[in-house]
Amino acid sequence: MSGATHTPAAAQTTTFGNAGALRIVMMVVILGLLLAAPFFLYPIFVMKLLCFALFAAAFNLLLGYTGFLSFGHATFFGGASYFTAYTVKEWGVSPEIGILIGVVGAAALGLVMGLIAIRRQGIYFAMITLALSQMFFFYCVQSGWTKGEDGIQSVPRGHLFGLIDLSNTTNMYYFVLAVFLIGVAIIYRFVNSPFGMILKSIRENEQRTVSLGYAVDRYKLGAFVMSAALAGLAGGLKSLVFGFATLTDVTWQMSGEVILMTLLGGIGTMIGPVVGAGIIVTLQNELATSDFPVTIITGLVFMACVLLFRRGLVGEFYASRLGRKLGFRPEQ
Amino acid sequence: MNKLIMTTALVAAGAAPAFAQVSDDVVKIGILNDQSGVYADFGGLSSYEAALMAVEDFGGTVLDMPVEVITADHQNKADIASNIARQWYDTEQVDSIMELTTSSVALAVQALSNEAGKVTITTGAATTELTGAQCAPNSFHWAYDTHALAVGTGGALVEQGGDSWFFLTADYAFGYSLEEQTSAFVTSQGGTVAGSVRHPLTNPDFSSFLLQAQASGAKVIGLANAGLDTQNAIKQAAEFGITQGGQQLAALLFTLSEVHGLGLEAAQGLSLTESFYWNRDEASAEFGNRFFERTGVMPNMVHAGTYSAVLSYLKAIEAAGTDEASAVSAKLKELPVDDVFAQGGTVGANGRLIKDVYLMQVKAPGESDIAWDYYNVLQTIPGAEAYLDPAESGCPLVQG
Lengths: 332, 400
Hints:
heterodimer, A: mainly alpha, 2 domains, two-stranded antiparallel sheet, 2 strands, disordered N terminus, B: alpha/beta, Rossmann fold, four-stranded parallel sheet, 18% strand, Amino acid/amide ABC transporter membrane protein 2, HAAT family (chain A), transmembrane (chain A)
């Protein structure tokens, strides 16, 4: 956090009211928009967007608040989507149990990967996570239960708690929205807990945190597993939304995409990854019908973002004169 | 009174075609495939052009309603494809989705189209699952499948004298199943399999695998892989002088577009199976040249298959008098398929188009006298041999 000499909150009360109130207003507006979204946007598209937003937010938990750049998050996202799809389709478990299995599976994968990867930092950490996620990708390609490049198809959405029929799009939408909000609430709570503060202090100065008596490796592992589990939540949810789990979600490109989403939106902000995911998913969807190759456009967007908005869109807004006036503080 | 009823009935009967049931007053076909990734040449926007050609050749309207073709790039991602497909059905009044390169995409879109009660005709994907265990009443598989490729390259090549085989197999499910199916046809024709070696997916260096294949002394080296792996293996085999040493390369999934990409120098002597070759007869050459004028490339079996799929779909709508999915599907299964792509083709109850496929050999640079003249047709394999009998396909729709 910036060690500002004057407290921003006190300064803001005179001009625009305090930031806390503004945030609440913003949250209410966003919540209202999300509740109303299926009536004016395509519901499946919004559900997909929410899944990716949750995935990016989970990724940001690690990159933004702990400072670890993982290049293997597709493992948790895609792995969980396989676990959920498989258990729901083959074992016939209900959707909430299927998602739970996906989350637990992703957390277990996260524990294994985390135990190995957190011993190193920076580029080495990224390379270890990339290597392990490639191992998982090849496992998914080869093993029989994932059905190779065909993927697990025709996964039924089933009935939530045995009561609510999720094959109804409206029901499914509000289920996805609820899970998304719970996921984001967990991340918010996590980041603003004493645990989260220690993570930030590890990010800022690991040596000093050690000297204060914290076992930093445990905190890092905790954050890694948490991030993996939440990415798994998003993955499991996505497999139910679309009714399939395929190799796309475990490829290294997917790990890259989530980094792109987070960077584009703004690292270390709550809303940034959500905005970034929204932009990328919308681009992929809207540009699908253009004659111009989609990948080139997303590449250009990424370059423009890195060159022009180093803090990401939301981060730049927070740092701008208007953002500061409204009481937002840029990270770092 | 009786007379009145009669007249009313007659008027109603006579008027029926005029009130033909076409939903939303337009027949809309969506071409959904990879337009920016590894399969962009294999299908891509050229498939969209093929669909447009079919509509124009049909006359632009069916049952007096306009026919429209739209297209999108699914980027090889099943979720993007699924999203677009749903949106097309729900908000764009699309009646049928075709092409569907990549098996995960084809299976996903086929399943959701089945729920939505729409017709799909897959030309770009290879998996026999589409008309096997995961078959659907309104879904069709048009251009080729892994079974036909294995029969063509595996079975027919043995008849041509290639009776001992060594496989270079991509180390994942698709590679195994290609190897397994092809081996079965090789041995059933009296050939032998000397051995096989598995290479990782997207492998840049085939030298050690090719040396093993060379040392095996097998007459044919079967490439049970796809895309870039096949291309790399062929290029490196050319550098090793494998074909000059008397061994023959056989690719299991390779089309004219990839041969063009490699060039005849590297690809010469390669055996492969396709269900279409533009320079096979006069009609196909005429189609090929028209296609070339529009796209700048000659059609492979996916492009020609897409043309045929659109044309057959429109004919079926005309015959059914409606664009309602189950009526159109019934007509598609009933009518023979006769066009530039298929002659005397029939459609099985599982949705599989059964037509001849061809074993080809890539020409040497000296043999090819006009541009894109790449193949010698070695053998024609009748459809009934090339494709699984619908009753044995494992499709639940077929009474076994």
